[in-house]
Amino acid sequence: METKITVNRQSVISAIDNRIYGSLIEHLGRAVYGGIYQPGHETADDMGFRQDVLDYVRQLNVPIVRYPGGNFVSGYNWEDGTGPKESRPHKLDLAWQTIETNQVGIDEFQEWARRANTKIMMAVNLGTRGADEARNLVEYCNLDTDTYYAQLRRRNGFKKPFGIKLWCLGNEMDGPWQICAQTAAEYARKACEAAKLMKWVDPSIELVACGSSNKDMATFGEWERTVLRGCYEHIDYISLHNYYGNPDNDTPQYLAQAVNMDEFIKTVAKICDEIKAEKGSDKTVNLSFDEWNIWFHSLEQDKRVKRYTAAPRLLEDIYNFEDALVAGTLLITLINNSDRVKIACLAQLVNVIAPIMTEDNGCWLQTLFYPFLHASLFGRGAALNVGISCETYDTESIKGVPYVTAAAVLNDNGEISIFAVNRSLDEDAVLNTEFIGFEDYALFEHIELNCSDLKAVNSIEKPDNIVPANKQTGGKTELSAHSWNVLRFRKK
Ligand code: AHR
Asked: How many angstroms separate the CA atoms of 358 and 313, rounded?
């Protein structure tokens, strides 16, 4: 299959906000307890954080980590996770029907984030709680004043404020599964007042309002309009969430899911601009795709998990090779929409629908660790439009899916990275790359992730079953059938 990619220096989508390579750690399953935190483990540091996990998180170079949820946050009292550990309460977490021991809270997590070389994107509880607790938390985290919550932080041993700049106004408040779900109008009021107070405490923070829980919600669109009308001047971003899966084992359809993600992003961006025009505002509200991933493998097994235990194995999807290809296409879509998507979080980071998995005897990496790693390492700079000419295919619901999808990034050091997935299950794509406005650029590295078995997985026993490999450069460039590719070019 002949494929042509054209990249033009003049055709810039946007400077990429590095926060699109963010992730999420929720108090859910073994993400925190037995994931990032396991006192007594042979790799645990002085605070009980697993250093093997920290090493991989640093390797991913994740600029932000959303915390502490997810659904968990809608029933969470942040104060429970502060102060002396021995007096912290054990509580029921109604979101995941587990027990929360509160041995990790913001006091510890901010230190984990520092050690992981990342920043926190903090979510406040707008389910069981509201503006009052939210503004207190901002004071606890960010102020240096002689007032109650800033003093409380100092009493708890943290002289310097944590300096958390990015905040989420609740989580998925439209979802019937959410603790204290709301109508759009109810949420808009609550979020608007919380936002006002939070910014009055610290005007330097940025706020993300909840969009719909996914594109298939019955209220999608109307929810966004109502929330934006109610909060427009007080917020900076609106969230998008979507998980993808292959429950019917229809791989061509599954590999086309990024087309839906692209449409979702463009629809929400259009709604933001509609409300901007309606309000005659100068401000542009951008998008925070703060939960995206593949989630379906663990759904059945999770129904059998015993309720109300601490840190059970939940949402432990084991990702196969085709999942990694889909993750690659979703990353390409985020880069290609970087003019509007300024924040994105691969949900999640450790053990729970995650690229990094732990056991007592070690850590291992899932297949989708690699596309995320490559995008995070080589996808920083300016996103350029990619013209692609290739064959297409149809699925039942999506017509004209290009076999090859790609994104191009002009890195800050002048190199160009092209990320490409060949969706064809049986044909290699012979790639002809045309650069306009770039003199004498040549391919110097071609990284490929590929496997003859689409369902193959990594595991603690076989952690290197699926790992990227370098391909020869120099002759014809080929994107093998069903492969993820990073093509790196520099001036000769
Ligand atoms: O990431 C898992 C869950 O998915 C989150 O808690 C929730 O926000 C979403 O429904």
From this structure: 11
